[in-house]
Every structure is written in C-alpha cells, then in structure tokens.
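GNAT family N-acetyltransferase
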Amino acid sequence: MTIDIAFAETDEQIAATFEVMRQLRPQIAQDQYVPMIRSLMASEGLGLLALRDGGAVRAVATYRVMRMLYCEKLIYVDDLVVDERVRSRGYGAALIARLKEQGRALGCSEIQLISRVTREQAHRFYFREGFGIECFHFRSRLC
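Predicted structure tokens:
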C-alpha cells in the first residue's frame, strides 16, 4: 500500500473528498460541501485530511482542536470515513495514526470522537485502535 495523507486545503482538494464523505454524511449536498467545509475551517478551525492511494481519495477525516477544563487540549475527530469499497485495507488505521500524530504535534493530551450506537463495525475498529468508552454523550434537539 503506497498511501499519501495530506491536508485538503484548496477548493479542488476539498471537493475531491466529497464522494467518500457523503458515505457518512449523505445529507450534505454536493454544491454546499466546499462552502460548508470552508466555513467550518474559518470559524471552527476545522482540519480536513485526505488519504489517497493511487491518486484516488480512499478515506477522509475532519478534526478540530479544543480546550476543555477536564483534560486541557484535545484533538476531536468530527468525521472519519473510509470508502466502503476499500475497507479493511488499513486506511482507517493510517488516518487514526496521522490524527494522533497531529494531536501530539499540537500539544494535545488526548484524541476523542463520538460514534452512533448503531455503528458496531466502527466500534470494533475504534477498540482495535486503542479507544475506549468513557462516558455517555447526551443530546437534545433544540428545534
């Protein structure tokens, strides 16, 4: 496997991640994807990593760095998705390793993410990658 993991920063690079991202986030319209990512980059410090193999985007991750009272600085993974056609080839593990490296470089004490309770396959993957369940994530809609 010859892979390249790089930040997607130009409109063209961001747009190239859409087809993989929509597998996790199908509600996002293609024409709104680049503006939405750009907006989150500007307002929230969102980072977008694209894993390419053979020139094709195979996996993507979005993340941000946050400060919390209980753990100081952390890297929070908003989205991590591997193209369903090429799962179980090590792409997800490579992205997690890169995110951990990024977190350490930025002085983060930990990496966090949430995953819906129905995503059992993803949970097995996260356990293999050294994540554990430490709390419940509560949510209530406001509108």
